[in-house]
Design goal:
globular; 8-stranded mixed beta sheet; single chain; alpha/beta
């Protein structure tokens, strides 16, 4: 009798433990946006076909006089306020080139609604829908920085017919893209911080654990989420310090708080799962979207980037013959925010 009772108690305890463990892997719902009882909205939004909203900001010349229209995609842990082209390109050059730039909060970031069904493809379709809502015409440019740069590959795959050109700035590389040589990826992967190696492994192999992994105090979370400064070069730190130091305190607080406004899961953790998950295509299998030379694709990379391995970026550029590859000597991950770099990027793309 005693053994039977003990077995029953053990089963009950195991069931309770499994229930507790499962509940701890579930992320909390995102914070609500808008009235009457949600977070206040501070910028314009459009409604998409599925009922979600995208928040955006416009820069440069007005649409009706623009010769070039760019939809720019922000980085990991960024927002519509984090765009190197809009923030650092010379207003005089933007005027001279006739450039209009729209930057939007990606789903779950800032003031854009989350997309629980988000995929590698879905954001490219969101970008196309944004362009149509804003009446940008049949062709427009896309640009993206870091994780936003990785998303430009999706645009080249799924909406190439809508593109006038594309700019990838320090785009994130997925170590599991099948066309990357394993020897090269293993070498590059081994040089990443241990905490990032583990976070990327979890995102790739156990995506349902990403929230739990990155919110436990006994596990080191992804370095950008944790705010580990070791991922930045001295040049990066100098750029970041200069940029934030030039802002009024209230503006700096707004910009730094925007990315995680709704919580970390729908923004950061879902980004990790998609960016390092199993993709439906490999960028190196893409066909040239501009076979008639009526557009161009430019990839910019710093050769001292500590976040994105330059060795993998070089290999990708070598395999894609129609990519215009630009490597900045001494450039870290934030090189595009240095004086004059955004001007050079725009001149190359619009030239």
């Amino acid at each position: 009798m005693f053994l039977q009772i003990l077995k029953i108690l053990l089963v009950i305890l195991l069931a309770q433990f499994c229930s507790w463990a499962y509940q701890n892997t579930l992320p909390p719902p995102p914070k609500k946006l808008g009235s009457p009882d949600g977070l206040p909205l501070t910028s314009q939004r459009i409604a998409l076909r599925d009922g979600r909203h995208l928040s955006y900001l416009e820069f440069g010349v007005t649409k009706d006089v623009a010769r070039s229209k760019i939809i720019s995609v922000h980085c990991f842990d960024g927002s519509k306020y984090h765009d190197p082209l809009a923030a650092f390109a010379s207003p005089a050059l933007i005027e001279e080139l006739g450039v209009y730039i729209v930057v939007f909060d990606r789903p779950g970031y800032g003031e854009s609604d989350p997309d629980p069904n988000r995929t590698v493809k879905s954001l490219a379709l969101d970008i196309e829908e944004l362009a149509d809502h804003l009446n940008l015409g049949p062709k427009f440019y896309v640009a993206g920085f870091s994780m936003g740069g990785q998303i430009i590959w999706s645009c080249l795959k799924y909406i190439p017919h809508r593109l006038a050109g594309a700019i990838l700035i320090s785009p994130v590389v997925n170590y599991w893209w099948p066309n990357l040589p394993s020897k090269l990826t293993n070498e590059a992967y081994s040089k990443q911080l241990k905490q990032d190696q583990w976070s990327m492994r979890v995102a790739h192999y156990l995506p349902w654990l990403t929230y739990w992994w990155n919110t436990r105090t006994w596990f080191p979370s992804y370095s950008i989420i944790a705010g580990n400064p070791i991922i930045y070069t001295s040049a990066d730190v100098e750029i970041i310090t200069k940029v934030l130091g030039a802002m009024p305190p209230n503006q700096a607080k707004l910009i730094t708080s925007q990315p995680r406004l709704q919580g970390e899961y729908e923004s950061l953790h879902r980004d990790l799962n998609i960016g390092f998950g199993n993709w439906e295509f490999d960028p190196m299998d893409l066909e040239n979207p501009f076979p008639d030379n009526n557009g161009s694709v430019h990839l910019w990379m710093g050769d001292e980037d500590l976040i994105i391995p330059v060795t993998l970026q070089r290999y990708i550029a070598q395999q894609i013959g129609w990519i215009n590859y630009h490597e900045v000597t001494g450039g870290g991950h934030m090189f595009s925010c240095a004086n004059g770099v955004s001007n050079a990027i725009l001149k190359e793309a619009m030239g």
